[in-house]
Amino acid sequence: MEAATPLYHFISSHQPFTQKQPRRYSTNFGLVNVAETLSETSPSTSPSPLSSLQFDYEKEFHSLNSVRAMHAKMIKLSSVWDSKRNMQSFISAYLEFGDFQSAAVLFFVGFAENYLYWNSFLEEFSYFGGNPCEILEVFSELHSKGVNFNTEILAFVLKICSKLRDMWLGLEVHACLIKKGFNLDVYTQCALMNFYGRCCGTESANKVFKEALIHDSLLWNEAILVNLRDEKWAEGLQLFCEMQALLVKANSLTISKVLQACGKLGALDEGKQIHGYVIRYDLESNILIRTALINMYVKNDNIKLARVVFDLTDNRNLPCWNSIISGYIALGYLDDALELFHEMITSNIKPDIITWNCLLSGHFLHGSYREVLAILRRMQSAGYQPNRNSITSVLQAVTELGYLSNGKEIHCHVIRNGLDYDLHVATSLVDMYVKNDDLTSAQAVFDCMTNRNICAWNSLISGYSCKGHFEKASNLLNQMKEEGIKPDIVTYNSMVSGYSTSSCIKEALGMIRRIKSCGMSPNVVSWTSLISGCSQQGYFREAFEFLIQMQDEGIKVNSVTISSLLQACAGLSLLYIGKEIHCLCIRNDFMDDVYVSTALIDMYSKCGNLENAKKVFQKLEDKTLASWNSMITGFAIYGLSTEAISVFDKMREANVQPDAITFIALLSSCKHSGLLDKGWKYFDHMKTDFGVIPTIEHYSCMVDILGRAGYLDEALDFIQSMPMEPNAAVWGALLTSCRIHGNVELGEIAAEYLFELEPYNAANYALMMNLYALSNRWKDVDRIRDKMEAMGVKIGPVWSWVQVNQRIHIFSTAGKTHQEEGEIYFELYKLISEMKKLGYAPDTKCVCQNIAEVEKEKVLLAHTEKLAITYGLIRTTSPAPIRVINNTRICSDCHTVAKYMSLLRRREIFLKDGVRFHHFKDGKCSCCDFW
């Protein structure tokens, strides 16, 4: 009876853990004494009134003290106190009342040697709130007092060490196994491999596997799983091959994981072989393997075989349906995925949150942003509450769509459902507000975040810097450092991008230097942000200078860099360099990038090579809206309205929805071709048929179309009926039309508004002086000139340039004359003489000076377009076309001369003026004399 006393004292003095205790492996309780007492106690031979005691512990135990009292009573008086049934009852009672250590002691004494009991004990232990660390505490105390444990107990202790990543205790257990010279069974070896794989790495686990004397099937399976858990896909697959060579059978879990490895590695052939193994061993009915096969084929982009496996599966469960649906979505077959989703519901399989999130994220990733919102509404109507993953996908879709009001609604939902404290959701909200230009709300969400990650900081800093609020961005950068968060390259790159897109090139370069001073290296994003900003702001030469610096630092360009450089080529009309970049795209496999292809279409169009633009466009398989728009714009600037409209019709046949840019391009093509009726048609239908609200740019195009067609009064009425205030572009379009048709009265009205809106724009004054000169109103010409002088407005130099042998030759009304001027004029006089024989007469109305007609003819000869074209004829050989760039609208005389030149010298001439392209060939122009 005295032998049981220590247990009684232990139970009566032990207090349950009411909160999680710090992790430790020594206790103040007499655990060892309890274990030793229990192990040494033998059943009494005398009859006992409690020997056949049967009780319901739920009725007998009302508190922890009652459990302890009954336990002590049974130990003292009962010969069957340690029966399995009674011990199970006491373990459950101790767990229920929170005395986890007492429960662990009893389990080690009565059940630890039986593998079958461990999982249920751990499950029950966790269910009542026990921490597995407490089991290790009991084990450590018992072990430190010299209690011997067999390999079964040590194996399960290793499993707990693996789960808790307790490397040191696990190493002690392994050392104990070695010191005691245990003959390790397969379960213990598996436990060791699992422990080393999770705590020390796969190399240590593989070493245990290699040192094993007998490689049982369980050991092979464990070795493969250990490698695959650590994402050693190739190693795991190789082990599986070796295992099959030895005819060792794999279990279903191993097969499913190896199939996952085939998907990760893109090993379709190996996956098919494993599929054959599954069929050979009649494992097809295993739903886990079926699901793994579907995923493997999906990851290898073979949706047809994935569907075959799915269709042959009889007992399809929810994971199986989710796998095939996610497969279709991952490969972009959104309609098929939705069809399967409907079939799943009709099959009485209820979708779960994973299914819905798969649909949401998949449609977002493939650009079906509006469908994301529709799926969310359907999800909610079906009674599913969006979780953080759902909300993140929807917020990203809202961001892309620019639906700020929808974003605010989702924000309200987030607050109502307590998701605003989720880091990913809060960061997505900040990003949504930033990209929808609501920096006030973004700052408010950011300020409410208790745990800000670097993504949230970067998003807000990027928002302020891209909007030009550099002081706020810098303050955030300093605050970020003060809170112990180190800025990364993304932080600095956002500042580089903000400065460069705001024309603060020096500051952007300063930020590049700051990156270097912080011990980081500017990457391709840093330099591309700088180059892209320069290209967007018209600093084309600087963009190429920074490209050279970038290459000097050994950084390779990416597709975004290429797109920005092509934009610079388009701005400078550098066709030769653009072709070199095109070759670079082909060599580096950038042609599959739709942004690069679109930039190439734009570059070729604006550099006077429409044929190459068409070739790039035709080869583009996945044409985006931007690529369609670029091609329509290309035809528009050449005045090829028929071709532009044809591309638009094909775009509609491809089910691509036009946007505002599409209609600007269409209206421009109508403007350059004088298609008044077509222009009205597209302007009227853009809102009613396509939901595109006309902007000031569309109204400006319509004013231009009406004015160029001679309907000047109608153009003025149209301006006065606009739902918005006319800007300088609208009045400029009217003034240009008045100059074309010589309408001084309406021209003066337009000029009055322009002088008020743009008092320092010399082009407006020049247009008005030209209009007065056409009417021989020289006093008014002098009046405008005097007004310009009084305001300090000067007309900039007119220039044209032509590229010959990779060198640009500039002809300007200011600066030095061309070194070969004499030869150029000699050839020009010769050409003019030949033209006059064919009927050419100089159009002296193009000279806005009050001088004699003979002097006007001399002035016409000095027009820079004529000089550039003539030099091109001298220095280039047929059949190479001549490409000339001019910064002002070509005059009618130069236009006529260019037509004659193309006829006399049998040369194609491409001339880009300040408005559009002219393609001269065989005495005709692509504009059909309408410009």
Give the helix proportion (percent range).
55-70%
Give, in spatial order, the strands making up the sheet with the most strands: 2-1-3-4-5-6
Alpha-carbon Rg, integer:
41 Å
Measured between the Cα atoms of the first and last residue, the distance is: 116 Å
Largest sheet: 6 strands, mixed
In terms of per-residue confidence, which ranges show pLDDT below 50 for 5 or more consecutive residues? 1-55
Please tally the helical runs, counting DSSP H or I stretches of 4 or more residues. Answer: 50
Q: What class, by secondary structure content?
A: mainly alpha
Give the total of beta strands: 6
Q: Mean of the pLDDT scores?
A: 84
Q: What's the shape? A: elongated
Strand fraction band? under 5%
InterPro entries: DYW_dom, E_motif, PPR_At4g14850-like_plant, PPR_rpt, TPR-like_helical_dom_sf
Domain DYW: 839-931
PPR repeats: 317-351, 352-386, 453-487, 488-522, 523-557, 593-623, 624-658
GO cellular component, one term: mitochondrion
Keywords for this entry:
Serine Threonine Protein Phosphatase 5, Tetratricopeptide repeat; six-stranded mixed beta sheet; 6 strands; 50 helices; 67% helix; 931 residues; mainly alpha
Describe this protein's structure:
The protein has 931 residues and is mainly alpha-helical. Among the domains are: 351-451; 453-548, Alpha Horseshoe (Serine Threonine Protein Phosphatase 5, Tetratricopeptide repeat); 799-925, no CATH class. The protein is built from 50 helices and six strands. A six-stranded mixed β-sheet has the order 2-1-3-4-5-6, with helices on one face. A hairpin with a 2-residue loop joins strand 1 and strand 2 (807-812). Helix 29 (489-501) packs antiparallel against helix 30. The longest helix has 17 residues, at 821-837.
